[in-house]
Amino acid sequence: MTSSCIIRHFEHYAELGPEEKELLASLEKAPKSFPKGSLVWQQGMDSDYFFTVHSGWACSLRNMENGSRQVLDFYVPGDVIGLREFAFRRRISNMMTITDAILCPFPKQHLTDLFARSRLLCNLFFMMAARDQAILIERLINLGRRSAREKVAHFLLEMAHRLDKACADIADCNHLPLTQVLMADALGLSTVHVNRTLNELKQQSLTASASDGVVILDREQLSKVAGFDPEYLQEDVESLLHNISDAPTLVNNSSGG
Amino acid sequence: MTSSCIIRHFEHYAELGPEEKELLASLEKAPKSFPKGSLVWQQGMDSDYFFTVHSGWACSLRNMENGSRQVLDFYVPGDVIGLREFAFRRRISNMMTITDAILCPFPKQHLTDLFARSRLLCNLFFMMAARDQAILIERLINLGRRSAREKVAHFLLEMAHRLDKACADIADCNHLPLTQVLMADALGLSTVHVNRTLNELKQQSLTASASDGVVILDREQLSKVAGFDPEYLQEDVESLLHNISDAPTLVNNSSGG
DNA sequence: CGATGGATTGACAATATTCAAAGACAGTGG
DNA sequence: CCACTGTCTTTGAATATTGTCAATCCATCG
Q1: How confident is the model over A170-194, as a mean pLDDT?
Q2: Domain B1-128 listed as CATH 3.30.70.3420
Q3: Any A CB within 8 A of B171 CB
Q4: Are A155 and A142 in contact (CB under 8 A)?
Q5: Strands A94-97 and B39-41, how do they pair?
Q6: Can you say whether residue B37 is alpha, beta or left, with left for phi > 0 and alpha for psi between -120 and 50 degrees?
Q7: Residue of B207, B198, B132 lying closest to B162 (CA atoms)
């Protein structure tokens, strides 16, 4: 089918040598198709695969004993999902598609191998893990110290920015396929309150609703409402690459010198 | 002074070869002493160093425009702090000591070098980054979908468990040097409400207060209150090591085979 | 001893939740 | 083309939870 989506993703950050491409390609099994609402994995299962998101959206979530749930993060095309489970034998959260999606699995145990073979890829993976953390802490701030209005606004903007970077070419980045229920569970609010908050924003023409989700109309104004600063989404690939080429060469990989 | 605290930390996870010890030791500058309340680093500064916590507690936090703040995580002896900043040129949050503390700095740019030289250390660092994420998502769930009572209880238990693993030998792990203000800022609550919640717990003899913090009296009962499950704190080092020894040897590092 | 940082309290207000019911909309099958 | 179904959205009223303000208390420290 489509050629390796993992390669496409990493090329987004740095130029890859032929060996690196080969390495990445070898990790990737056939892309797998998941209809909307599929459980990609479930808490407690063996964490044996990572995935890249080729198309569609997914989210990780945790079901609580009392029936409520917390959505931890959403994933858009280009994202790598599951790195968080590297430290654990079993999955620590559920992963669900929220639109029809195509995901590209690759086995977790090969990551260790890859780390040894390509310094560049190793560093890029580490960078992605760090970025994931940055996103999580911003979500933490969102949950802890912002009003419902700010929460909704900030969240929408984050997702739009992530779309910008990942797939400005193939999608309308102001159009987010999110139900109010999902947003509520992500923001720690009730559905009813998300609805009311969203309606406020609509009345000010900052957002609108589409048949299958939310639409951002006015990013600038919305940024003011949210106090949004996209800095935490901008990785510093440049100095990473610089560090890599500075370090003594011990491994026989390419990636110029 | 003290011999390398980084080595001590990593030996907690796996047996290190002499080369790995050397590598780690070379990273570490002289341990540095910080009085209680020091700003170790500030948002926006160059993120050029990581630290291990040798003694004392620290926390990362973000100051909000409206004067409030969000504490992101606390760090206890043995923790590595700053991995999150790997992807970024500038620090994305503040780091502050909350007791007198000794931290061991090591330069960020050497991490890349280290990744190339020791497969074991590379994987362990990656594992720690994944664990950090696990802690963050648990804090997320805490903020999003638990009552004040559950928040406080869950948080106290997490910190106690982390102390258990890190320094059961040198400290009373039920004794946490946390003010109510800090807890409030970590849990997204007001100080007043933390106080009331804590008083409830005290009246049920689940916790008590000491001159310099909180004391956990009854972990079992508190776990019930919180719905606490420590699984997310247990890394699976064993299968990680297994994966490492399975992977083909390309790098000239030790760590048996 | 006064100064400081933290803990505690009460009264009141704001914010968000719950419950329950109805409306909108797309997809399905007759 | 229409009724039927399921999912998502919208609304109102009552309630619960948590926040704010302001004052007091308490211990520690120089």
Answers
A1: 96
A2: no
A3: no
A4: yes
A5: unpaired
A6: left
A7: B132
Three-state SS at A4:
coil
Set of chain A residues whose Cβ sits within 8 Å of the Cβ of B119: 112, 115-116
Is the pTM above the cut of 0.90? yes
Q: Is B1 an interface residue toward A (CB < 8 Å)?
A: no
Q: How far apart are CA B202 and CA B128, in angstroms?
A: 34
CA B192, C1' C13: Å apart? 15
Name the residue type at position A108: K
Interface of B with A in 90-109 (CB under 8 A): 90, 92-93, 109
B189 CA to D20 C1' in angstroms comes to 12
Tell me the pLDDT tens digit for each residue of A207-217. Answer: 999 988 999 99
| Residue boundaries of the structural domains of chain A | 1-145, 146-226
Kindly list the residues from chain B whose CB atom is less than 8 angstroms away from the CB atom of residue A239: 89
**Which amino acid belongs to residue B23?**
L
Find which of A166-170, A220-224, A245-249, B113-117 is predicted with most confidence, using mean pLDDT. A220-224
Mean pLDDT of B123-128: 96
Contacts with B62 from chain A: Cβ below 8 Å = 137, 141
Q: How confident is the model at residue B1 (pLDDT cuts 50, 70, 90)?
A: very low
Confidence of residue A251 (pLDDT cuts 50, 70, 90): very low
Cβ-defined contact of A88 to B130 (cutoff 8 Å): yes
Q: How far is the CA of A39 from the C1' of D2 (A)?
A: 35
Give chain B's end-to-end CA distance (angstroms, integer).
35
Tell me which protein residue sits closest to nucleotide D8, measuring alpha carbon to C1': A179
B141 closest CB neighbour out of A62, A144, A246: A62
Strand order across the B101-107 sheet: B32-34, B101-107, B49-55, B80-81
Q: What is the pLDDT of residue A168?
A: 74
With CA atoms as reference, report the closest residue to B85 among A162, A239, A86: A239
> Which nucleotides of strand C lie within 7 A of protein CB?
5-11, 15-20, 25-26
Q: Which CATH number fits domain A1-145: 3.40.50.2000, 2.60.120.10, 2.40.30.110, 2.30.30.240?
A: 2.60.120.10
Average model confidence (pLDDT) for chain B? 92
Considering all nucleic acid strands, name the nucleotide whose C1' atom is nearest to the C-alpha of residue A147: C15
CA-nearest residue to B184 within chain A is: A144
How many angstroms separate the CA of A61 from the C1' of C16? 22
What is the DSSP annotation of A38-90?
-EEE-TTSB--EEEEEEES-EEEEEE-TTS-EEEEEEE-TT-EE-GGGGG-SB
CATH architecture of the domain with residue range A146-226: Orthogonal Bundle (1.10)
Residue B254: is its pLDDT beyond 50?
no
Out of A231, A232, A251, whose CB is closest to B116? A251
